[in-house]
Design brief:
Pyridoxal phosphate-dependent decarboxylase family protein, GrpII_AminoAcid_Decarb, seven-stranded mixed sheet, PyrdxlP-dep_de-COase, lyase, Aspartate Aminotransferase, domain 1, 13 strands, pyridoxal phosphate, about 10% strand, alpha/beta, Aspartate Aminotransferase, domain 2
Amino acid sequence: MNLPDTGRTTEDLLAELARLKERDLPVRGGQVTAYVYDTGREEVHEAAARAYAEMLEVNCLDPTAFPSVVEMEKQVVGAVADLLGGGHGIFTSGGTESIMLAVKAARDAAGRAQPNLVLPVTAHPAFHKAAHYLGLEVRPVPVDPATFKADARTVAAAMDDDTVLVVASAPSYPQGVIDPIGEIAAVAAAAGVRCHVDACVGGWLLPWLRAAGAEIPAFDLSVPGVTSLSCDLHKFGYAPKGASVVLFADPAMRRAAYFASGAWPGYTVINATVQSSRSAGSLGGAWATLQALGRDGYLALGRATLEATARLRAGIAAVPGLRVLGEPETSLVAFTSSELDVFVLADEARRRGWFLQPQLSYAGIPANLHITVTGVTLSGIEALLKVIGESAAAARVRGPAVLPDGLVDLVVNLDLAELDDAAFAELAAAVGVDLRPGAGQPEMALVNAVLDALPAATREAVLVRFLSVIYRST
């Protein structure tokens, strides 16, 4: 981009934004079954957008300068705590930051020289990211191959004197199942270890599903032994992106998440989050969304979500060759097939205007496709099931993505550090994945088939290069 010599008009800029977004997936309507959460209620989105804009330029850095930040955060965090068993919270930019703060607080409070985390293989990678940034060892434990849930005895066996935090999910994202929170929290408490419940997805969903009639086990801070919990409001709270809350049972642990510095001659530095300066726009958007929907609104969305999930599961089971993984207790549904290539199925769905999220195989769990059912899904559930059925039939005819002979061994043994981004793009193009400028959207079935065949460490290295290539300017 070249900086213009003179400023451009708002109309001109908005027209260019519209052009830039032409190939984006739609954020409304339910055709994108991951990443975005839609109530189907335009007035709620409008209220959030206007509140976001109103608070856009307010800086959360200094709450004494902008007391509106304090009042709004207390209201938002208070609503979350009221729904999820109490506690003392921090409003953050998302689940990753909430998890980062929970891990930091546990590490600092424990004071171990070589701290470690114990977590199921289905726990979100944000915990691995936090451990990477904060210098902790990750100790993953397997889950049951049929239920995909962690086992408390396995968790207990993985702990030692340097374990500072045990993690359980409500639900785990991949298959939408809830770990046995009470059992895991109990073994952690017996060992004197803190227990974090990752309810980033479920925190603002499970209570409303329960109110709508679903059987939901206790999972929040009311469970003995649970010491912290993360809950994203930009998921099933339906707030604009950048909205999450981390709750601590003990106010001292919330203080352990803070950062303060007095060792410089400038302004006072005290941060509740990883970020320092940050817009209060997302806080305003979250506050307005909660207020605009209220309890009745969330309960109605919960009922619609519950019905849509039941119909989705039944519909998938009726498609020849497809099966749902586990018994999801939430509105996250993953399905796989031993008869056709699910990655090809996802490409076929994309051709029909729908996005189904591919998930790679790992730890004995097969490759699958993930669907997040939201409040708007019910209105389009028949269309979604029609697309899944048609895409499955088309994938069966097309057959699986075919990897070039020797490609996996080549990638595994390749020294990626020796390739610059241009050379990596040329190599990818040579095997049918063209990432070069102007090439357009590659066939993701082949991309995912390559990644699925690689060991996890190699996957990570390739993904880093993939990201670097698509963001390169030349």
